[in-house]
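Quick question: what would this complex look like in 3D?
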Amino acid sequence: MSKSARQRSARERVAEERRKQRAREKQRKLLLGVIGGLVAASVAVVAVVAVQDKAGKSSQKAIAYTGPAVTATRQADGSILMAKEGVTGPTLEVFGDFQCPACRKLDERAGDAMKKAASDGKARVVYRPFQLLTAPDFPEPIPSVSRRGANAAFCAPADKWASYAKTLYAYQPEEGKNGFENKELLNWSRDLGFYSPEFDKCVTGMEKADDIAKATQYAKEQQVTSTPTLKLNGKKLENKQMEEIFADPSSLERILATAAS
Amino acid sequence: MIHDAGSRTKRAPVPNRPGWLIASLAILVTAGLAVSIYLTIDHYSQEISLVCAENATVDCAAVTSSEFSTVFGIPLPLLGLAYFIGFGALVTPWAWRSDHPIIRWGRLGGAIVGVLFVVYLVAAELIVLGKICLWCTAIHVITVLLLGLVVLDEYRRIGQES
């Protein structure tokens, strides 16, 4: 090999080495850029989700019921009767659990229609909150949330029931997440203007546990195994009728009329 | 002996990729596409759960009805479907033959955006909902693996440039 050829191959080797080094440097930059960027962006995304979640929770104000006005009275067994004076039937019983998403949907869809029926004298509407979602069938915190919700609803004064129940459904915790904390339950009573030391004691002391147990026992006797269940004059509405009410709440009037005649 | 320096510097215009890399990406995208199609069908055929039953095996559809099931009004399964169709286009043999920067950066950028979206969704599942959806998790894992392979490909390509 000539001298010049040797020099050339040495130069090539050096150049090759440099190219390799540059490539390694670029590879390093690629990895650092992708990983570093991902970590930074992920932290930001998680922080935004967490902050929004917190902000959403702290700004939960009670929601007042503003639909058709109707007199509500608390019955001896703790259930809420909504009826126009002098109306004797038909009777629509509403079995619900405040932790049940389908009950929430029914309340959102047809809550006003039911109260309108009571207000118009088309029916006596009886709200029967109970605890469907019990341990051990459902893992905690589902049963506790259900219980706290039912207890607070039993504690609330009858004339505030519509607003308080609406609020409970509106802020129904996602299944499996904690919620209906005493602080929230009490704050909502303040928002709705009926907070009292008695209500406070009733909520924090779970004072209506007996009523919940009785209501749950009654639901069991009535063979209510899913919620929401509507009973018209003691007869369970069929799935088809429930679907009709979900699809078009005004169909409730027609269904009530069939029972009245 | 005289080296022919000229022939040494001649390189194929497209970096050669190992077959397993191309195959893995194709399999992952196909799997992602399949799960997305399944979830999309499920999304549209699923009736709104009208009742909560008295046992835990019946899920009250808390997750599918949650506020996180859509983004800007687009149902998530549909978004996933679009993502895998788009990504699928970037890993076709035609796309591999081209070394156009748009395709390369599209792959890398798309994979990064995908993983960030996964981070957002998992954060929502864990922090807000406290629930994990298994089929969605399959999609998340696929998306993360896609990024890994795309980064590996880019890493190799840079190495071959020397």
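Answer marked as accepted. The radius of gyration of chain A is 31 Å.
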